[in-house]
Design brief:
184 residues, alpha+beta, Aminopeptidase, 7-stranded mixed beta sheet, 5 helices, 28% helix, globular
């Protein structure tokens, strides 16, 4: 696989306002990445956070979504949303303001250029500005390099499930570890 070395400046845009066409383009981009990373899922079902993109990522005070463009081409995305406690049977994060980092995806030809790292740094900065206590995420071991990437970003593993299908790895980053480097 060849990797593109970008000579054009990338634009990291925090989505603060979007019309229906822009939301659809971002949703389509995420769903295309989801089909690649999780081919075993039913892709006819749109996840709630994408179905309610405006409410989840733009209007909610604990929501955030960043789109990365090369000129007008969408090349990467990431966001966080209010954590919904859906894994509360495994661990307790209720006493804190927690968001879940979701939808990190970089087009394959744009990888190995620090785009994902820059996205995570920007999300940490925005989490700090929103007075968030913890950024939670989960990943799976079949996503090559994912756990190592998140550890490099400062996340710590809080639980590795041993279920026979997903082997979900739950991770967190506390606000004391947020790095507020500005990548604008």
């Amino acid at each position: 696989m060849s990797f593109l070395t970008t000579t054009t400046a990338l634009q990291f845009k925090v989505v603060e306002k979007a019309d229906a066409l822009q939301i659809q383009a971002m949703t389509d981009f995420v769903m295309a990445g989801r089909r690649i990373m999780f081919p075993m899922l039913d892709h006819q079902v749109i996840p709630d956070d994408l179905s309610f993109f405006q409410q989840t990522f733009i209007e909610h005070p604990l929501g955030c979504f960043i789109a990365v463009y090369e000129q007008k081409k969408l090349v990467a995305v990431a966001g966080f949303r209010a954590y919904d406690q859906r894994f509360s049977h495994l661990f307790d994060l209720k006493a804190q303001t927690v968001v879940e980092l979701v939808k990190l995806y970089v087009l394959p030809q744009y990888r190995r250029q620090q785009i994902a790292t820059q996205l995570v740094q920007k999300l940490k900065q925005l989490a700090h500005q929103k007075n968030i206590d913890v950024i939670y995420l989960h990943t799976q071991p079949f996503l090559a390099g994912a756990k190592a990437f998140w550890l490099q970003q400062g996340f710590e593993t809080i639980l590795e499930e041993q279920d026979p299908i997903w082997y979900t790895i739950h991770m967190r980053l506390d606000s004391s570890s947020f790095n507020t480097i500005n990548y604008q």
